[in-house]
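Predict both folds.
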Amino acid sequence: MPPEYTEEGRWFAENLLPHEAMLRAWLHSRYPSGVDVDDVIQEAYMKVLKARKMEPVNAPKAFLFATARNLALNVVRLAFSWQEIDMKKSGL
């Protein structure tokens, strides 16, 4: 997380951090235990902050949730792909 005394830190504290508890609960309710929610949230924060450097983020909560959802889906897809590969290797 960026230091709060920077403009980026202030924006983060005002626009993203207040939604963390709701995002965490939502991710736990939607995705299996194979998804590391802490990692997804941390990466979502990084992606939102990086995107904000390119252009303004007009709906930070929506963008944060969509980003976290996409990251969690990527984790699930990757796990499914590895499971499929393991099944093929074992002849199932």
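Second protein follows, with its predicted structure tokens after the sequence.
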Amino acid sequence: MTTVEIFYRYTAPPSDAVALALAGICDVYGIRGIKFNHEERTLRVGYDASRLSAASVTKLVRQAGLEIAEIVALIPPPPPAPKAAAVPAQA
């Protein structure tokens, strides 16, 4: 089992029907759990990557009715490499 988390930022707070539908995705084999942060408008979904892909988890969340604004990277990208200083040409 490979436990992975995917982090979504959503646009509008979920209605009761959407929250109930999202609770239902916990019954899907491979979903480990969901956690809302209403202040930051984020949803974190834990899943077993040996059973589900990120695309299939995203599809489940969208089918539940949550309007996803973006998928947030949990690991920030590395900073850009510093540019090498130009060496002056010698005559």
